[in-house]
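Below: protein 1.
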Amino acid sequence: MSEFVVINKDAKIGKNVIIEPFTTIAKDVIIGDNTWIGSNVTIYEGTRIGTDCKVFPGAVVGAIPQDLKFVGEYTTLEIGNNTTIRECCTLNRGTAAKGKTVIGNNCLLMAYSHIAHDCIIGNNVIIGNASQIAGEVIIDDFAILSGIVAVHQFVRIGCHSMISGGSLVRKDVPPYITAAHEPLSYVGINSIGLKRRKFDSVVVNDIKQIYRFLFQNNLSVTNALKEIEDKINNSEQKIEIINFIKSSKRGLIKGFVDVEHD
């Protein structure tokens, strides 16, 4: 450990952890085994970082929320295993709303991205360069946000979805789709992502049909759900999409007519 590193005596550092010069680690921080912390990183109290993670120079991890309702309550930032945090990311801990901000396993947070208070980020999520995620956002497993995406607070982004660069995300984005344009709209299912993750072709076709009912057949959400429940084969994916739609609090993004990626 370099003499230019400042580590509070109450921090818990795992085995084979490398901490580069000019990094500061506060009290009540836990860092798992085999993690690398680059130079000029600041890790604030309440941060938990898993094993085999990488935190690149300039990142600020576990700072207090940028929320005026925060009054110093004890909260945490919890980061899973094998997650990479690139240069100058800012990750805030939670507020009394949820008590913690959570980032899962195998995630990639690219340079200058921001994760605000009380967000729940799943596993295998990619956040593109300079994307900004507001408070209490939920991003489910395997979602990909391209660069310079801005996500409104309380939005949910479904699993295996893909959001185009520069998008403004004001409404919920359902699972398995690609979203683009302004205002943000459905432009097809995330066929490439599903193929890479070896989804069965029958399941992929059913997902396509689900979103035809929802976005392309000029049906109300209520009638689209009835068609989906009656006419689509039962599957884990069908149940997940239906539950997502029914539980949406901000409402769904809209369809973009006559555009679909196969």
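Below: protein 2.
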Amino acid sequence: MTTTSLGTWTGQPPITAGSGILSTDWLPGPSHGTHSPVVVSFTDFHSDSEEDWQQIAALGMELAESWPIMRGAVGLWLWGKHVELRGGSLSIWDSHADLRRFIRWPVHVAIMKNWRGRIRVRSASWDDERFVPPQAWLRAETHIRTPRDM
């Protein structure tokens, strides 16, 4: 992960070596560059089959294509831990209202309804007084590194 002259972040998160975690590069949203209080949202899906894992990962990448227009979105990393058939996102938002708007977005609702019962999803969110990408990632990584019930 690197910082630009404007203080914004690009690239990979600070993934712990040997953890088996893969990640996209930082995907900036319209509020990219903010450091003021933010809402951090972590999601973790676990599938029972390779085929489902591949499909949901592809859906995540499709959703990410809309990221630049998500009002209130600071940025996003998608992550995966293939050996455990797990993956998810770490998204940063200006406010709880912005996160709720995304959760209620009809495209997101349709995906969740379609996959209900086929995958197991956990989520967590927290408020940070100041957005510091390495700190947000390391907190999320503690969730990722905790094994899921298989």
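The domain at 21-144 is CATH 3.30.70.100 (Alpha-Beta Plaits).
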